[in-house]
Amino acid sequence: MSxxxxxxGTVGSELQYSGAIVALRVDExxxxxxxxxxxxxxxxxxxxxxxxxxDKDEIxxxxxxxxxxxxxxxxxxxxxxxAGPDESPLEAAKRELVEETGLAADNWNVLVDxxxxxxxxxxxxxxxxxxxxxxxPRPDPEDEEADxxxxxxxxxxxxxxxxxGEIVNSTAVSGxxxxxxxxxxxxxxxGTDAPWVDRPVAFAQRKAAQA
Length: 211
Hints:
The protein is an alpha+beta fold.
């Protein structure tokens, strides 16, 4: 007779750091066999990204400076869910697409959900496919976005850039390859109201409580 799966309950938690976009807590977690172990967890707002594809089958990519790596990376337009735990991911995606590229889209679907590095962080993101692209006024950019460059890249060329190591951002890699896979298998993508089980909420709730 098989045993029930072990419940990894949290018996204690201590906040170590809380900053602008992340917090670090240490949880005491129940392990199989009765002992407990400490697990460090980086809390994050979560994010959305957009695979915006025009009628030429080109995808909009942005070249953005990323300080931890010390260089500019080709990425999908993206942004944090930092307006609170009740922020609509779709509305955030629409906002970020306008702010980073000066583009809007008539058609939206969920392309793929990604848990970025679940061994130590709850950071997750939802990538949307946006089509029916049109240009709209773009707000004045600030900080890194003032240096950001948008470029249209053919989808086949984007795949080549992933496989050659030119595109390394995990969001861009996931979005580009997921789009190609969905097309190859004629997969019907999820609607924008599809459940997002792993959307991070702990950090947003913590910030809301401190406000």
